[in-house]
Amino acid sequence: MKVLVAALLALGLPLGAAAEPVGLCYNYGCTVQTEVEVSRAQLDAIGRDMLKARDAESERRFLAEAVARLYRIAGTQTPIWRDKGGNSEDDAVEGRMDCIDHSTNTTHFIELLAGRGWLRYHTLLPRQMRRRGLIFDHWTAAIEDGNGEKFAVDSWFFDYGETPAVIPFEDWLDGRDPEARHRVAEAVQEQMERQVKQ
Q1: For labeling, which of 1, 50, 118, 125 is most exposed (least CB within 10 Å)?
Q2: Which one, of 156, 166, 177, lies nearest residue 89 by Cα?
Q3: How many CA atoms lie within 13 A of 98 on its CB side?
């Protein structure tokens, strides 16, 4: 089946419907739920890149870029292009996304890729949560490779359309993220301060 998909993509032949609907939510806590459409041409371009992966490590890199591309596509149809990393810089802005929105959307995007046979070295997992203290939960999309190693796929740290962090799950659970450490610390502190004041 994978060979057939690769052959169809290489020939530029359609793989299905003209556009694929994907669930999307925003405005914190998935308050607004909608669908966006990804065109056949957009999907085929993403698929060609995903099929370049030759091992789990390279697939994670292609997956991160595919997720970023899908967010950018969604931003042409919804106000999520206003989203900023964390929860402090876009508070009350239409289109803002918290970690619940991001983890849900990223999971939907990975489901789309997996459903087309483009996730060959990983399995999509249910969304995962970590807790810091008594009041701060943080959610992420997650994948697992063939050796059973789990990875967080977390787009919440970054501004709209940027490539998400794909990091070992244990590091993510411990709050370690070398790509966005300072922003994570600031966002966590601001979130905790707001929750304490309420």
Answers
A1: 1
A2: 156
A3: 18
Give the Cα separation of 89 and 77 in Å (integer): 22
Where do we find the tokens 């899908």?
70
Q: Are strands 165-168 and 136-145 parallel, antiparallel or unpaired?
A: unpaired
Q: Would you state the structure tokens that stand for residue 13, as one six-digit string?
A: 């032949």
Residues in the chain, overall count = 198
CB of 125 closer than 8 Å to CB of 166: no
Instruction: Count other Cβ atoms within 10 Å, centred on residue 104.
Output: 21
Counted domains in the chain: 1
pLDDT tens digits along 98-129: 999 999 999 999 999 999 999 999 999 999 99
Structure tokens at 188: 């966590």
Write the pLDDT tens digit of every residue in 15-73. Answer: 455 799 999 999 999 999 999 999 999 999 999 999 999 999 999 999 999 999 999 99
DSSP string, 69-135: HHHHHHHTTSGGGG--STTTTTTT-TT---HHHHHHHHHHHHHHHHHTT---SEEEEEEEEEEETTT
Query: Which tokens is 21 given?
Result: 């609907």
* Domain membership of residue 165 as a residue range: 2-197
Give the C-alpha separation, 10 to 117, whole Å: 15
